[in-house]
Specification:
It is built from 7 helices and 15 strands. By secondary structure, it is α+β, with helices and mostly antiparallel strands. It folds into 2 domains: 118 residues, Nucleoside Triphosphate Pyrophosphohydrolase, CATH 3.90.79; 126 residues, Nucleoside Triphosphate Pyrophosphohydrolase (Alpha-Beta Complex). A hairpin with a 2-residue loop joins strand 4 and strand 5. The longest helix is centred in the middle third of the chain and has 19 residues. The chain is globular and about 65 Å long. The N and C termini lie close together (9 Å).
Length: 299
């Protein structure tokens, strides 16, 4: 696997142009531009064409009735996609009466394996923002309603004297492939499909470095002591708002495994066992699959 290739959901798929978010007339400029692309969201679902290969059902060419019904607070400037403004429109439960033929509102997760990388990235970006905005409607300090700012990328408390400002948050999580030389340590949760095994993962705790989190999670879940670790790559994971930080780590040969916590099972697998189907690997678009596939290639 190409180590320089971005993980799924990531990469330079959009020009964010963050400086444009501070322009007071950003929404008017977008609405007056006939080249603007509109990406519709209803909760965590987005409007897509589902026939053949799924793709985003962008609205364009000044779809007046729809946009007029959405006040500025429901618009988010995502950036420039294919050199055109791209606006997220949160329609809520009031779905438009007329939609493009063969288009419907769908969840991202089941579509992910079928989408091209660029559009999967845009939907992951939009989904994460929509979830954060829905959860930040009220100030966590005083409880007053919040108001969207910076083209939808921050929320400010509306109460005079408070005016706290909130920004999109991510939950950092480590995900790690541990090897002891010729074997890889994989685990499974009881809720997964039969035979499914994956790399070890867990959220980073306050006051903890990423390397500390790797060692702690591996020890907590498998009883295996990590002797060293190095960063591999990362992946935005919009289910709902994580950033998966991938590592490769090493353990002493012959380290015994003792399952604790949330894992139903964990054990060492050789490359030959995995090739023979002893473990069903995670989805091909996940960083977990990338970590395992890279190791399988001997890298």
């Amino acid at each position: 696997m190409d180590s320089q290739q971005p993980n799924f959901f990531s990469g330079p798929y959009i020009d964010r142009r963050a400086e444009e978010r501070d322009h007071g007339n950003w929404a008017r400029a977008a609405l007056e531009d006939p080249q603007t692309l509109y990406l519709l969201a209803s909760g965590t679902r987005h409007l897509v064409y589902t026939q053949s290969q799924p793709r985003i059902a962008f609205l364009e060419g000044r779809p007046g009735a729809l946009i007029a019904a959405a006040d500025e607070s429901r618009l988010v400037l995502l950036g420039w996609l294919r050199q055109r403004r791209c606006i997220l429109v949160e329609v809520g439960d009031q779905l438009p009466a007329q939609l493009p033929q063969n288009a419907s509102f769908e969840e991202l997760r089941p579509l992910s394996p079928l989408l091209v990388g660029e559009e999967a990235g845009v939907l992951a970006y939009a989904r994460a923002l929509s979830i954060w905005r829905a959860r930040q409607r009220y100030c966590s300090v005083c409880g007053a309603a919040t108001i969207p700012q910076r083209a939808g990328h921050s929320m400010r408390c509306s109460k005079e004297g408070c005016a706290q400002e909130f920004f999109p948050r991510l939950d950092p999580a480590i995900i790690v492939l541990i090897t002891d030389g010729e074997r890889a340590l994989l685990g499974r949760q009881s809720t997964w499909p039969p035979g499914r095994y994956s790399t070890i993962a867990g959220f980073v705790e306050p006051g903890e470095s990423l390397e500390d989190a790797v060692a702690r999670e591996v020890m907590e879940e498998t009883g295996v002591a990590v002797t060293g670790a190095r960063y591999d790559s990362s992946q935005p994971w919009p289910f709902p708002a994580s950033i998966m930080i991938g590592f490769r780590a090493w353990a002493r040969p012959g380290s015994a495994v003792k399952c604790t916590g949330e894992l139903e099972d964990a054990r060492w697998f050789s490359r030959e066992e995995i090739r023979a189907g002893a473990a069903v690997l995670p989805a091909v678009y996940s960083i977990s699959h990338r970590l395992i596939a890279t190791w399988m290639d001997g890298k």
